[in-house]
From TrEMBL:
A biological process term (GO) from this entry: sterol metabolic process
Molecular function per GO: heme binding; iron ion binding; monooxygenase activity; oxidoreductase activity, acting on paired donors, with incorporation or reduction of molecular oxygen
Membrane-spanning segments: 12-30
Superkingdom of the organism of origin: Eukaryota
Keyword line: Iron, Membrane, Metal-binding, Oxidoreductase, Transmembrane, Transmembrane helix
Protein name: Uncharacterized protein
InterPro entries: Cyt_P450_sf (IPR036396)
Length: 265
């Protein structure tokens, strides 16, 4: 009895590689069939790399990937506010964009949820808000231009501007979006994480502790918390996050008092 059980166990171990290979092959076939069903008449390759999908093409040749998406594009794909049912459009973009930008990102929303979010971000683009951003941008740009002129005069030779222009654009964005909520050390860390984030756009995202993606999400939470405290204390509006947070707190207050409307995130 024991001998027959031992032989049975050995037979299972011998067959394990074959069973594993069969399971992998079955998964690959089902993955390709699922891809073809979801793809339908949309442009794209007839088959995809198993387990990685279109990410492999994006990593291998990013310009060709985006050129391939842009070639058949028509202006109609951007009319997400048209008065039609939500499933009338199929958004084609980054293969794992939802993981990077979030399930509730504006670019992936449609219908009533999209309209409600647009209503909520409207205060970010009032004349007063735009004047706040313009003043912040002017301060940053003028400071960088002066530093470039000083550097050029000191070195007495032409200065390469590719990296300085990138730094200026990054600082402009940081100032407009999160204004006073980043210390000097945090700004340097943000610049490093931003570069890692851009590299991550061309790689498989890893949402685990110690990776740039997780650090970026935690940084967003810290900035949002600081802005919420500032707006509740009646602080002066200084950046885009402040305008959005002020309107969000106002909406939340109305919702708690019994106002009708969709639940806010």
């Amino acid at each position: 009895m024991a001998e027959s059980s031992l032989f049975g166990f050995l037979d299972i171990r011998a067959a394990a590689p074959v069973l594993l290979l069969a399971a992998v092959a079955f998964y690959v076939v089902m993955e390709q069939l699922s891809y073809r069903r979801k793809k339908g008449p949309l442009p794209g390759p007839p088959l995809v790399v198993p387990f990685f999908g279109s990410i492999a093409q994006l990593i291998r040749d990013p310009p060709a990937y985006w050129d391939g998406l842009a070639a058949p594009s028509s202006g109609r794909s951007h009319r997400v506010l048209a008065n039609v049912r939500p499933d009338a459009f199929h958004f084609i973009g980054h293969p794992f964009g939802k993981k990077l930008f979030g399930e509730h990102s504006l670019i992936y929303m449609s219908g009533e949820a999209h309209r409600e979010l647009r209503r909520r971000i409207a205060p970010n683009f009032t004349p007063r808000a735009l004047s706040t951003y313009a003043a912040a941008q002017q301060r940053v740009i003028l400071a960088h231009l002066r530093s470039w002129l000083d550097r050029s005069a000191a070195e007495a030779k032409p200065v390469a501007l590719r990296a300085p222009c990138r730094d200026m654009n990054l600082e402009t964005s940081k100032t407009v979006f999160v204004g006073p909520y980043l210390t000097a050390a945090a700004r340097e860390e943000f610049a490093r994480d931003y570069n890692l984030f851009n590299v991550g756009l061309m790689a498989v995202p890893v949402d685990l502790p110690g990776f740039a993606f997780r650090r970026a999400k935690r940084a967003v939470a810290r900035c949002a918390g600081a802005s919420k405290a500032r707006m509740r204390a009646g602080g002066e509006l200084a950046c885009l996050v402040d305008y959005w947070m002020q309107d969000t707190l106002r909406d939340r207050g109305g919702y708690r008092r019994g106002a009708q409307g969709p639940k806010l995130p």
